[in-house]
Amino acid sequence: KFSEFEIGYQLYSNCKRIGITGTNGKSTTVSILGMIYDNVVGNIGKPVTSLPDKIKYNDSIVTEVSSFQLRFIDKFRPNICAILNITTDHMDYHKDFEDYKNTKLKIAMNQKEDDFILLPYDFEFDNELKCLSKKIYFGKKLSNKDCVYEENNEVILFLDNVETKMFNIPDNKLIGYFNKMNIIVAGTIAYLDGKKRNLIEDAIKNFEPLEHRLEHFLSIGQTKFINNSVSTNADSCISSIKLYNNPIILILGGVTKNNNPYEKIFNFIKSKNNIKKILCYGDSVNEILEINKL
């Protein structure tokens, strides 16, 4: 089968390609890059085939890549790519987690020796990722591997036994450890693609967080209303709850996508004493009530 995504790649195969996949954080990372690059396509909402007939040969194309798109790739080869994370999601589409994970890993299958792939420093599927490209691990300074890490807001690349200070993380509107990782990945990719330090730092500083992602949309008195409706799997939900120590009324529900997320979420909630109420809604109400024995 040929997908729109693969056809779009082959139409512009002479252009350098950047690819971002992962269960969570793809759109934010790609959108930060969108502050630097003109051509941003894929799962972000713009079809790959919608690019202009002619774009500059030296323009890189930034692509957000979902598992649905990776499932049917043939020749797609990102020169620089990242797997931000892989946790359970889309079990209503994939046969099982193994199928989902293996589909995500396909992003690197056509890469060559002079390509790069960024991976979390603790990536648990590293041994299953068969690729020719150079692996760079993000999030922690490692003594025996190429890596990128942050020290006093300076992002440092350790590559081929050489340390390079790439860019500083300026004050910005993104919150949470996971968003810092998104910033580091986006900035590192831009640096590896030859972008200047000031361009990267300006993109981070001026980036406006995307809608529905920890979006503070209303305050009544001292109560803040946070729209986090893009948080549609257990790990995303848990990472978001971790950011807040104030009392929380949590709205939880919707469609589970056969992910069975609630047991994991409630096991975490038991360790937090600031969840005061949970409002359940949608198709999964009975599942939530059963798990929590309300």
Structural class: alpha/beta
Q: Give the mean pLDDT.
A: 93
Low-confidence runs? none
How many DSSP-defined strands? Answer: 13
Sheet having the most strands: 9 strands, mixed
Number of H/I helices: 9
Biggest β-sheet: strands ordered side by side in the sheet = 2-3-1-4-5-6-7-8-9
**Cα Rg:** 20 Å
Strand content: 15-25%
* Overall 3D shape: globular
Fraction of residues in helix: 25-40%
Query: What string, H for helix and E for strand, traces the elements in order?
Result: HEHEEHEHEEEEEHHEEHEHEH
How many angstroms separate the termini?
47 Å
Structure description:
- The protein has 294 residues and is of the alpha/beta class.
- Helix content is 27%, strand content 23%.
- It contains nine helices and 13 strands.
- It has helices at residues 4-11, 26-33, 67-70, 97-105, 177-192, 197-206, 234-241, 262-269, 285-292, and strands at residues 17-21, 39-42, 61-64, 80-83, 116-120, 134-138, 147-151, 154-159, 162-168, 215-220, 223-227, 248-253, 275-281.
- The strands form three sheets. A nine-stranded mixed β-sheet has the order 2-3-1-4-5-6-7-8-9. The chain has a two-stranded antiparallel ribbon with strand order 10-11.
- Helix 7 runs parallel beside helix 8 (262-269).
- The radius of gyration is 20 Å and the shape is globular.
- 35% of the residues are buried.
Task: List its traits.
alpha/beta; nine-stranded mixed sheet; two-stranded antiparallel ribbon; 9 helices; globular
